[in-house]
């Protein structure tokens, strides 16, 4: 996503909890002249405030917020899920987008225009995309998207969601496997597209939703899942 936004001419602040991965992202996306890397945990309020302050200090405005941070749960049945696991998943997946929006929106209101993209999931609509914590958190993201649209659409802020299915990222695919590994191939065997989504495909949708071409798109949830919600009934 960072690379795609840069390719579209944007200046991008990339937030993450791990400094070495942020540095890699900055380098791959064109260097510090176009990308500012910020170490921050989006579930921690003081981190969020400090990160947004850094962006405003450097560029003076925030035109687009893309809430893409997220974690998966253990897929265990609800009665086996610990409260710590529940809280960790909710913090990253639901509290993070809320805090980022909460402290970015005032700057967008001053500008009279802005956009927010929340990365939800097919698990925002159905079960089996994760365990109880993940599914509940992604339902929350979609609810937050709709509520923010209701509250701020008339004030110039567009809020939408992207809902990916099986996407070839390290969160979904263990480093010991590839999309063609037997377990991974089986995960999408009943998906109509018969393949995993590539991260670049999600990034292109984000670029569209963040552009003026999507100026009339408010409160929408764009499903990019290869048809999984339509046809599949098993967990990834």
TrEMBL record:
Pfam families: adh_short_C2. PROSITE patterns: ADH_SHORT. One of its GO terms (molecular function) is oxidoreductase activity. InterPro entries: NAD(P)-bd_dom_sf, Sc_DH/Rdtase_CS, SDR_fam. It catalyses: 2,5-dichlorocyclohexa-2,5-dien-1,4-diol + NAD(+) = 2,5-dichlorohydroquinone + NADH + H(+). CDD domains: SDR_c. The keyword Oxidoreductase applies. Keywords: Oxidoreductase. It comes from the Bacteria. SUPFAM superfamilies: NAD(P)-binding Rossmann-fold domains. Belongs to the short-chain dehydrogenases/reductases (SDR) family. This is NAD(P)-dependent dehydrogenase (Short-subunit alcohol dehydrogenase family). It comes from Sphingobium vermicomposti.
């Amino acid at each position: 996503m960072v690379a795609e936004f840069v390719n579209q001419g944007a200046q991008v602040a990339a937030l993450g909890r791990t400094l070495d991965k942020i540095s890699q992202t900055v380098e791959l996306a064109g260097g510090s002249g176009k990308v500012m890397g910020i170490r921050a945990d989006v579930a921690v309020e003081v981190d969020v405030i400090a990160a947004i302050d850094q962006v405003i200090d450097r560029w003076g405005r925030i035109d687009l917020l893309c809430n893409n941070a997220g974690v998966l749960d253990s897929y265990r049945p609800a009665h086996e899920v610990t409260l710590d696991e529940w809280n960790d998943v909710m913090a990253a997946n639901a509290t993070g987008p809320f805090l980022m929006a909460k402290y970015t929106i005032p700057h967008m209101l001053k500008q009279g225009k802005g956009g927010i993209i929340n990365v939800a999931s097919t698990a925002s609509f159905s079960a089996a995309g994760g365990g109880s914590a993940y599914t509940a958190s992604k339902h929350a993201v979609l609810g937050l998207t709709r509520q923010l649209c209701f509250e701020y659409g008339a004030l110039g802020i567009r809020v939408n969601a992207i809902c990916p299915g099986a996407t070839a990222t390290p969160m979904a695919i263990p480093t010991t496997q590839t999309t063609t590994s037997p377990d991974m191939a089986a995960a999408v065997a009943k998906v109509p597209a018969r393949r995993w989504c590539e991260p670049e495909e999600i990034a292109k949708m984000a670029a569209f939703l963040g552009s003026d071409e999507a100026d009339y798109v408010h409160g929408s949830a764009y499903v990019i899942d290869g048809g999984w919600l339509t046809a599949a009934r098993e967990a990834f």
